[in-house]
Amino acid sequence: MSDGIKRRDFLKVLGVTGAGAGLVGCSTDHVEKLIPYVVPPEDITPGVATWYSSVCGECSAGCGVWVKTREGRAIKVEGNPNHPVSGGALCSRGHASLQGLYNPDRVTGPMRRTSNGFESIGWDEAEGMLLQGIQGAGSSTALISGKEGPTLSALMDEVVDLVGGTRIEYEALSEAPLREAARLAFGRDVIPTFRLDDAEFILSFGADFLETWLSPVEYTRGFARASGVDEAHDKARFVFLSPRLSLTGQNADEWVPLEPGSEAVVALAMANVLVRDGASAGPYGDLLQAYTPESAAQEAGIPAETIEELAQAFGASASLAVGPGVAGQGANATATNLAVLILNAVAGNVGSTLQIGVEDRGAASASYRGLSEAISGMAGGQIQAAIVHGTNPAYSLPPAAGFREALGQLDFSVAITSQIDETAALCDLVLPARHSLETWGDANPRPGLWSVRQPAMAPVPHFDSRPAGDLLLALARGLGGEPDGETFHDYLRNRWSERHADAGSPGGTFDQFWREALRSGVVNLDEAVVEAPSLQAPDRALSFDRPQLEGEGLTLVVYPSTRLGDGRGANKPWLQELPDPVTKLAWHSWIEIHPETAQEMGLRRGDIVRVSSPHGEVEVPVYPYPGIRADTVAISMGAGHENYGRYADGKGVNPMRLLPANVEEPSGALTHLNVRVEVEATGRRRRMATIEGSDQQYDRPIAPAVQIDQLRAGALEHEAGYPLQELQGGGGFIPVPVPGDGAPEDYPLEGARYGDYDPAENPRWAMAIDLDKCTGCSACVTACQVENNVASVGEDQVMMGRDLHWIRMDRYYEQIDASAPGPVDVRFVPMLCQHCGNAPCEPVCPVYAAYHTPDGLNGQVYNRCVGTRYCANNCPYKVRVFNWHRFSEVPEPLNWQYNPDVTVRTEGVMEKCSFCVQRIREGENKATLENRELGSDEVIPACQQSCPAEAIVFGNIRDPESRVAQVSNNDRTYRVLDVLINTQPAVNYLRKVTFHPVDSIHV
Amino acid sequence: MATATEQERGAATHPDIRSYGEVNEDVLLMLNRPGKWWWVLLGMSIAGIGLLAFSWGNQIINGIGLSGLNTPVGWGAYITTFVFWVGIAHSGTLISAILFLFRARWRQSIYRAAEAMTVFAVMTAGLYPLIHLGRVWHAYWLFPYPNQRLLWPNFSSPLVWDVFAVTTYFTVSSLFFVMGLIPDIAAARDQAPKGTLRQKLYKLTSFGWRGTDRQWHHFGKAYLYLAALATPLVLSVHSVVSWDFAMSIVPGWHATIFAPYFVAGAIFSGVAMVITILVPIRKVFGLEKYLTTKHFDAMAKLCLVTGIIVFYAYLTEFFMAWYSGEDPERRVFWNRAFGHYWWATWIMLTCNGILPILLWFKRVRYSIPALFVISLFINIGMWFERFVIIVTSLSHEFIPFAWNVYRPSLTEMGIVIGTFGWFFFWMLLFIRLLPPVAIAEIKEVLPPPMRPKKKEVAQ
């Protein structure tokens, strides 16, 4: 294929430039009906998608995205391949932003608080109240926000400055300790850039960089590139040091289950070993003397040899240490981050795998300290009015922080929010804000890299909302200010015009620059290249020692949820229903306890226990998990909402209720590692909402692995696959004798007719999945759900085993030992319809609803299906799912999320992965219109598109030049169960590669 | 004209029946005004039908999700009960057709009730393929009806074979049942009071039977012909039903033994059900003369033989699972015995394998109460056999991560109980409206009416 502009790209350009801004911009004229067009808009062709580049607003990573719209309606968010953060991929939370846009619990109009709850009011009255309230409070106004884009943040500062109030930024998941540590170590207040893909040896001190830590999509890509095996480079070794094995830890090669809070001393001891062997620690040389491997080993409860060995390996290769994560954020969080940075510096990683950019002049780290002070001010009367936007402290702070009470004492509080949350519910005035997919904005994920967010569609007409920026501009004007712009769109353009001029007018005139910025979604404003800094002496004393924990019993680890983040994903059924990648539980909370501890306490899976700390208690069911230390328990954040919408309320528990509201010094972050908890049985049990049957594969040919030495020695050379056969006839083929004993390689039989599957004329769609790269993050599961209108079924139905996901992320434990450092081996297998060439589902369907297409797909005709479920019974992979009820009926406007290219299934029919047949047919149609053959790699299904680890490849396997054929042509290739039952699956898996010996490498 | 040996045989099977007239009287007496308990039982059956209608209607409106089925276990109580009733339906045709061809004269007293049971059991079983469908309103798509889209059912699917097998079986067994009834209905017609609705109905359904030689000649030929036609069906229907399982690749289902295993199981359960039904009828209507302990002894022997075959099949399955050396197969059977559903398996083994050992003893075979209790247990055991085969296999298949268990829901229990109401509703109507014991055929084995010897008169 030529490198010139592709038709799809052209359409995207057209969509952006062709007056897209004017049509979908900040107009407040609601378009009630999108179809029919009396005067058709130029950039909408019915049936053809229009794409807009934008920025994901679900976490502060700032992934560039493309939003797919059809007939003016956003239907899918995909990663922007030009964007250095997302690299074209996206996580589950990014995909689910669509359900924030169409959430039926969004605020429908401005509301005022009365004695009987909220009452609807008009916008004029609401804006009047806002202005009056802020004018009344004057300098005792606080504006509490999350971490906003640079322009909105600047506007907020401007508004606050007008009254002389306080601006507070607060994010529940704060990177403040890392930034503070970078400032202490290198004199630069910036988040370092971690270049995982360049590392050959990665140590994580508990950083969940594949899930929630800083920029998971980017790090997943980097990690998969580093640890995936290919001809180009060797597999990077990854060691995880943490009391709990997170999903990131499950992808490690070794696990060092150290004492919670002892990460700092271990990192320093490792640096000490390197210094002893000749490395330089700059001003920290003396400090390191105190941290010998022996003393650290004692502190961390691990052997000193492990520390020695890891340190030496760390020093000997291109290495990178990251962490700790949010979960490990104790009273020594900054010190731990500093220790890890010192370790990197001592090993000489600064400037190579770890880069310290220029100082981040943008927003300060949104730590808890500012809010903590504001709460005191609110309680003490110094703050009398508050505007809250983009953050939910009433939920995400421990009750001990006193935020709720303080907010209640204010004279005036207003929430500018698209959805009612616990904080907004306490405010006097609620102003419905636009969702991030409906607004203008920008993002500055790291110094030098910018993106502009543009609205992908006209505001959803069900909600009478306004952009937060417009509201603040109106407020600023009311307060006598003269903000530079009528609407936030103007304001943003003006700021960018200045920025463009400051940067020396790259890309021609501002209009040209702006169009290009919107089209590509990426703006690189070159910052001065800075030299790698050297270690500086810290400007304050820090304690690296393991922090003292309150209370008695088991140490409590509270970690951010891969699915719900800090809790803001909780009202999205896609995220609630996504099984947690580690525990495979959906919809509700759980407490992870080591199986031996659970056994000692007489607890079984599903027993509800009361977990009590000195600060509170919660009741939660037990999930025995071998990947956690025996003296530690863990609960995930994000659940247990009280007032966040129909899908969130009452689901699970909020572990923040167990924590004190401690500020970590010097970073100001909220600490999460604080308490020990008592766990006692309540005598009650519950059925867990899980998709997991067994975590053992019983030596079946499902997820084999190979040790890297064996692989290099060619142990798998003779395991390589055989060509994929189509053995299903279109009806009535003549039986012919089977030579040999009917082994797969005996097929196709000489003289037999296998229907219409002429290899010369038809492609054979197939997939390759590299299990050495797959991290089990489950982004593909949600991507598939969005693309294919897969319904969510709810907690009760998941409990019964009726989830509808077309991809099931199977997970098998091979080796997990929490008692001592050692290898860890967890195998993930994304299990989707295998589109077998000899499919067991097809012959048993009495009505031909399951049939074989000439291009090798297992078709499923929903309209023809009568629902005998025989096909699902006979599917050995168990990837067929059934519509037990009318799951596709969702409250308006959640149904706007549906992809018009895919049938919405009704009750009583079977469904399953279609290999995104709508994308195949779209590609074929396009190729036909352009009078050419469809390229073998041209069709990209939603799972492949979304995979941050780049583990999935799809294409026509009959074309030996296709990527799928090339990737599959590998010693590691195998097909699940095929040797057992000759199903000829079209999904080729490439087995996982380990450093430790594995039981059996043969399938 | 009966020969001397036949006289003896008649005397041996029915020693207490004196005359042809007595047969007419005794049997047609059953068609008189029913007693209180009949009405109570009928009321309970109608309540059962109501439960069925409510549960099924609710399920149609609110979705098949009201069952407890889930993704690995797509079939559960519905298909279990379907196979159960198809199995029950077996013994009727076996007794009436195969034993007819083999001239096993002990069938005469029991075959009418067994045939009725067959027809009603097929009617009950036939509900289940409809009940278990996700979209029952499209059930007719399983039939090869002419349509302008030229769409055919998939003839390679065992479910389509099922459609043909069950409908054929229902057609032939109903024909056989109705035809055998003609002379007896005529007898009932002759006895019914003139001008009543009952008499008119009998008149219609006796098809003008007058008992002429010519009619008897045609009747005998047709009966023989239908018996020959029905005989292969006895073996084929349950073989086809077994292929629903054996043709799949599910571990625990995919076995060559299934057809004979299922046929034996069907006869086993069918004969047990005949015993279960006939014991109370015999007691209530005082039919001890007609249903002697010898009949029950013969049925018990049939149970014993088929029970041994079934138990052997169980053991073979376990052995073959071990012998296969494949983990999926082995683990399914290990799970059967010791896994989540161990109790169902042990109910099955106890009821079908261990309890029937008692039938080796003649005293047990001749004890009506003992037989009744054993037959009840066999019925329970045979329901659980199908439950075990279906549910334990599906719940632990090839991919361990996808394993899951199934619990029947209230809706399923309502429907299963409701269909028993449906079955007994027809059974109860049958024993009151149609002669439940074959009048004409019993007469065939009785000694011909002769003037009694003088000394007998003197007595």
Describe the secondary structure blueprint for this structure:
The complex is a heterodimer of chains A (1003) and B (459).
Chain A: H1 7-17, H2 20-24, E1 50-55, E2 64-70, E3 73-79, H3 92-95, H4 97-101, E4 111-114, E5 117-120, H5 123-137, E6 141-145, H6 150-163, E7 166-169, H7 176-186, E8 193-194, E9 201-204, H8 216-227, E10 237-241, H9 247-250, E11 254-256, H10 263-276, H11 285-289, H12 293-300, H13 304-316, E12 319-322, H14 333-346, E13 354-355, H15 368-380, E14 385-389, H16 393-396, H17 403-408, E15 412-417, E16 429-432, E17 441-446, E18 449-453, H18 468-478, H19 488-502, H20 510-520, E19 523-524, E20 554-559, H21 573-577, E21 591-593, H22 595-600, E22 607-613, E23 616-624, E24 632-636, E25 676-685, E26 705-707, H23 708-712, E27 765-770, H24 779-787, H25 795-800, E28 808-815, E29 822-823, E30 825-831, H26 841-844, E31 850-852, E32 858-860, H27 870-874, E33 881-882, E34 910-911, H28 917-929, H29 942-946, E35 952-956, H30 963-968, E36 973-974, H31 978-981, E37 987-990, E38 992-994
Parallel strand pairs in A: 6-7, 6-14, 9-10, 9-12, 10-11, 14-15, 15-16, 20-24, 21-23, 26-38, 27-37
Antiparallel strand pairs in A: 1-2, 2-3, 4-5, 4-16, 8-13, 11-29, 17-18, 18-19, 20-25, 21-24, 22-23, 22-25, 27-35, 28-30, 31-32, 33-34, 36-37
Chain B: H1 4-13, H2 20-29, H3 36-62, H4 77-101, H5 111-125, H6 127-131, H7 158-191, H8 197-205, H9 213-246, H10 258-285, H11 293-324, H12 327-338, H13 342-354, H14 362-365, H15 368-395, H16 410-433, H17 439-445, H18 454-458
Helix pairs in contact in B: 3-16, 4-5, 4-9, 4-10, 4-15, 5-7, 5-16, 7-8, 7-9, 9-10, 10-11, 10-15, 11-12, 12-13, 13-15
In words, what does this structure look like?
Chain A is an alpha/beta fold and 1003 residues long. Among the domains of chain A are: 176-355, Dimethylsulfoxide Reductase, domain 2 (3-Layer(aba) Sandwich); 554-685, Barwin-like endoglucanases (Beta Barrel); 705-994, Alpha-Beta Plaits, CATH 3.30.70. Chain A is built from 31 helices and 38 strands. Chain A has a seven-stranded mixed sheet with strand order 5-4-16-15-14-6-7, with helices on both faces. A six-stranded mixed barrel of chain A has the order 20-24-21-23-22-25. In chain A, strands 12-9-10-11-29 form a five-stranded mixed sheet. Chain A is globular and about 90 Å long. The two termini of chain A are 37 Å apart. By secondary structure, chain B is an all-alpha fold. Chain B has one domain (34-144, 151-449): Up-down Bundle (Formate dehydrogenase/DMSO reductase fold). Chain B contains 18 helices and no strands. Chain B has helices at residues 4-13, 20-29, 36-62, 77-101, 111-125, 127-131, 158-191, 197-205, 213-246, 258-285, 293-324, 327-338, 342-354, 362-365, 368-395, 410-433, 439-445, 454-458. In chain B, α3 runs antiparallel to α16 (410-433) and α4 runs antiparallel to α9. Chains A and B meet through β28, α27 and β33 of A and α7 and α12 of B.
